[in-house]
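Recall the central idea of this unit: under ordinary conditions, the amino acid sequence of a chain determines the structure it adopts. In this exercise we apply that idea directly, starting from the sequence alone.
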Amino acid sequence: MFGRRTMLAAAGLATPTVLSRAARAQTGPGGSEAFPSRAVSVLSGYAPGGVTDITSRAVAERMGRELGQPVVVENRPGAATAVANTAVAQARPDGHTLLMGTSTLAINPALQPNLTPREPMRELAPVGMVFRSAFVLHVHPSVPARSAAEFIAHCKAEPGKVNFGSSGTGAVNHLCQALFARRAGIEVVHVPFRGGAPALLELRQGRIQAMFQAVQEALPVLREGATRGLAISSAERSPLLPDVPPVADTLPGFDAVFWQGLFAPVGTPEPVLARLGGALRAATEDAALRARMAEQGVSVQTGDAAMLRDLLARETESWGRLIREAGIKPD
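Accordingly, the structure predicted from this sequence is:
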């Protein structure tokens, strides 16, 4: 004889107990949709092929294995990364649309305040750190300096005569140069280019005399002897240039790098952020991934949301102050 429970089930109904179990199977913490329920998109404000893109894809692939869904990088360059930044800030806060944010999040509010998001600290939720990438101060062989201290002395002896290249006004390597000049008390001429490649060509030819450049980009010319490395912009030495000392050995406390971190739209549920943070940690702690990125001059860094939040806050204040005090304006 059929009982009442069996009859309800046969009629397509369910008891409260059965219903709650089925609901939990289809939902995530707090009654939300199970995460991730589909592929996760990671937007990048940079074009394909560069170190930022290569690192993003390596980390995304490893995260996908942890999450059980594909994590796909989408390149959306434009407006000093504001196109990608804004798209994520305005996305549905469910964890399926993320941002590989970079130092530009700390720079844009002071340099280009009309770009959105105007307040990344309020519009994006940090997930965790991805990497740090240092710059090397290298010079044309015609410059009679073999250390940062000698270069500073040379610039002081020739005020306003040393042409210092960068990959563009407001780029991190430009701000690195501006910070170096202010800390060292030297007067140099900033020559902005549209990217690092044309600047490097001019440095090789001696039409500019110095620049801070990403280590992995400078390595070929340094190994050829076409330029001479004087110092590293990070507080620690680069494993790719172990004999080149940090600028901090000459200017204590100097530490200026390009960084990348993962962000979600503000309002993303905490359990989803925690799941993403765990997958990101697994990726950045992967020994094979770290070794592969080290060959590109990239120091993959494990760091939680709090570390990334503190970094963004600290650099928004420090880069903003430098931009205002030095009167740096976008081209």
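The radius of gyration is 24 Å.
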